[in-house]
Please model this.
Amino acid sequence: MVASSKPDVLESRPSKLLSDEPPLETYRHLKQIMLLLLCLEWWWRDRPEAPPERRNNFFAAGNLTIYYSGRQRRNEHFRGPDFFVVLDTEYRERTSWVVWEENGKYPNVIIEILSESTAETDRVTKRELYQNVFRTPEYFWFDPYSMEFQGFRLSGPGGTYVEITQNGRGWMWSQQLELFLGIVEEQLRFLTATGELVPAPTEAAIQERLQTEAERQRADAERQRADAVEAKLEKWRTRLQELGIDPDELN
Model:
């Protein structure tokens, strides 16, 4: 990732450690990660619908290296989740997530996008790492081809992962994000507590245009109905006058 040209963006606690993740395997994997990132960014940042404690108070990233060496060394103990979210942190750009530069904070939620070469690592090795070392409260994985979808939450005295129960639609509730995760049209999406899809910015713009057009059409229809009623009244007034009756005296 290339650092932003805006000096004030990375001014606070800049890191010299760049992300060092391999390219994603397929375009579908890239689209899925970007969709999650764009939707969550749009939903939380400066949105009146977002809880106040979430606005500009989080960091979400995709395919970004997490450095977590206890000895603060860049060449040991690092992993790059496909998508992760850290809550209660400064909203700003980062070139990597360096735990010892972030007050020891690890992700609150991690989502791995399975592929043939990484599936076993995601299901076993990373699950153990996120459970035992990161202590990440919620871990999900999703296969964009087979639609395999599972979620886990730290539970019990030892804080081990237990499967998150799916609802009738196959969605899983994230206590950390206060959103559902579910498969919609073969993509992993965020959904609100009331079941509404969290849109990407482009989808939100389309929805806004459709709503504006629908409101315009309703206004036009109401105006046409009012004009029709007025025309009918005027017709009756004219007919009464032809009969020598003053319409105003009928009131």
Remarks:
- The helical segments are 27-44, 119-134, 201-242.
- The chain has three helices and twelve strands.
- Residues 201-242 form the longest helix (42 residues).
